[in-house]
Design a protein that fits this description.
It contains 2 helices and 37 strands. The chain is mostly beta strands. The chain has 4 domains: about 200 residues, no CATH class; about 120 residues, OB fold (Dihydrolipoamide Acetyltransferase, E2P); about 80 residues, OB fold (Dihydrolipoamide Acetyltransferase, E2P) (Beta Barrel), CATH 2.40.50.140; about 80 residues, Nucleic acid-binding proteins (OB fold (Dihydrolipoamide Acetyltransferase, E2P)). The strands form 5 sheets. The chain has a 5-stranded mixed β-barrel with strand order 15-16-19-23-22. It has a 5-stranded mixed beta barrel with strand order 31-32-33-37-36.
Length: about 500
């Protein structure tokens, strides 16, 4: 898989991405409006996804994202947070999270809704491949709302001045593709995303981020990683325009060297690898070098304060604490998936990896090669066991094309979701039970505190999704439930997706 699958866009304010279905965790009360709060906070958007067996790629092209504040009753306060065109392969996020966007200049206040625009037509692309990796079919599913999606999380979310907010979007590709009963096997794109709002430290999968090095501080192993190279002889002026509202008002951000579009990388514990895939040290890194940093993101702690932080007032700055630094452009390090065929005997040994097309390569462990689980747990070489799936970052040896010099190994990739699906129409709702009619007769769906129920609607030329509780489930509505049948005759639901009678899918 090419590193292009992991490209990051560093832009200005961003609070969400792809979805019609959201679960907001950690939201705050809705008593403070955007207008009544001053100052800026920081926001980092982290994307992740689980695997699916149906497609080799699920590519989504976004052309715009805007944020709608809580008090926007006249629809004039929309803030454009992304304009352009960016394509993301959702399935590239199985073993990693991607830091999609960051900003240290997010206006503090209460936000209600996110508006997302997908490319029209063909904003969703599904690719099927054969066992040799050749494309055998490309499908462009239908999208509701002409590609315009209004997203309502459960409860408003708040950006606080001087604080950091992370929003992790966990995209469920298995539930996102609705098969339309047209007789020809057509697909409807119905994205399902679970959103975690985290106000201090993001934990979970490793996050990878590509960019250009600036403000390199070798003494403290710090640098900025920015989305664009910067001409240090002709920096952009402070107060340069970085965005435009939907009503045409310009958003001014006081950014010197474009640092609102950068993340600070702390490399104290990082292993560095050069463009040839060999272990290196920080001295090899120069300003404006291209590289990828892989690690964990969080707002810095008190003992991380330095003079630069005090001078640039970045007391709530988002940071990436790097585990691995890979020098070079996005295609320098290959990302190879396979199954472990032999086990390394030492931390400097090699092991065999069987690829999807049944070919076998040798993966060389090196000084500094890091090993993690898919969930972000630090492991060692003894965890590389036969039969486990693995994703390896590395550079192929110039002397031996079958040898991959590794920088990072992810093992224990999660298995494909084995949840069962139940489809039918609502007959009744009683306490925590939804009774539905199916082709196999009546079924009883049991809802717990951990279950998520979503209602899809169509309104004003866009698609809208709301999270609801069980008592708001409409009668006769069509639904899909995902979960597991139990021995006592119930179907325990993890997720329920309800199609409004007004929404055509």
């Amino acid at each position: 898989m090419s590193r292009k699958a992991y490209t990051s866009y560093l832009g200005t304010v961003a609070l969400a991405l792809i979805s019609m279905v959201l679960v907001a965790c950690g939201g705050s009360d809705s008593t403070v409006s955007t207008a009544s709060t001053s100052g800026n906070g920081s926001v980092g958007i982290v994307l992740t996804d689980g695997p699916t067996a149906d497609f080799a790629e699920v590519n989504v092209t976004i052309t715009g994202v805007s944020l709608i504040p809580d008090d926007d009753s006249d629809n004039n306060g929309h803030v454009v947070i992304f304009q352009g065109e960016k394509t993301i392969n959702l399935l590239s996020l199985t073993d990693f999270s991607e830091l999609f966007a960051i900003s240290n200049e997010v206006p503090a206040g209460q936000y209600e809704k996110i508006r997302l625009h997908l490319k029209q037509p063909n904003g969703i692309e599904l690719i099927k491949k054969d066992d040799l990796g050749n494309v055998i079919e490309t499908i462009y599913p239908k999208m509701t709302g002409n590609g315009k999606l209004d997203l309502n999380p459960r409860g408003d979310f708040r950006v606080v001045a001087g604080q950091t907010l992370y929003i992790q979007l966990d995209i469920d590709a298995n539930k996102s593709l609705h098969i339309v009963a047209t007789g020809n096997g057509g697909y409807q794109f119905r994205p399902v995303i679970f959103v975690d709002v985290i106000d201090h430290q993001f934990s979970g999968k490793l996050v990878r981020h590509f960019g250009y090095v600036h403000n390199l501080d070798m003494a403290n192993n710090h640098f900025k990683l920015c989305d664009q190279p910067i001409d240090l002889m002709n920096p952009p002026a402070a107060g340069s325009s970085t965005g435009t509202s939907e009503t045409g008002n310009t958003t001014e951000i006081d950014s010197i060297y474009g640092m609102d579009a950068c993340i600070k990388v702390v490399a104290d514990d990082a292993s560095v690898f050069d463009q040839d895939g060999n272990p290196a040290d920080m001295s090899r890194i120069q300003d404006n070098d291209m590289l990828t940093a892989v690690g964990f993101v969080r707002s810095y702690e008190d003992d991380d304060l330095d003079v630069d932080d005090l001078n640039d007032n970045s007391d709530h700055e988002i940071r990436l604490y790097a585990e691995v630094i890979e020098m070079g452009d996005m295609d320098t390090f290959a990302v190879v998936d396979g199954t472990v065929a032999t086990e390394p005997q030492t931390e400097a040994d090699a092991f065999a990896l069987t690829l999807e097309d049944a070919t076998e390569i040798n993966v060389q462990l090196q000084a500094g090669t890091k090993v993690f689980s898919r969930s972000g747990q630090r492991l060692d070489y003894q965890s590389i066991a036969m039969g486990l799936t693995a994703s390896v970052d590395g550079v192929y040896s110039a002397m031996d094309s079958g040898m991959l010099k590794s920088s990072l190994i992810i093992v224990d990739t999660a298995m494909i979701d084995t949840m069962e699906k139940l489809h039918g129409n609502v007959l009744s709702v009683d306490n925590n039970i939804i009774t539905i009619s199916t082709s196999d007769g009546e079924k009883m769906i049991r809802i717990s505190d951990d279950s998520s129920i979503f209602l899809m609607l169509g309104a004003d030329g866009s698609s809208l999704s709301d999270m609801i509780d069980i008592m708001a489930v409409p009668s006769n509505a069509e639904l899909d439930a995902y979960g597991h049948a139990t021995n006592d005759g119930y179907f325990d639901a993890d997720t329920v997706i309800i199609e409004s009678p007004e929404t055509t899918l």
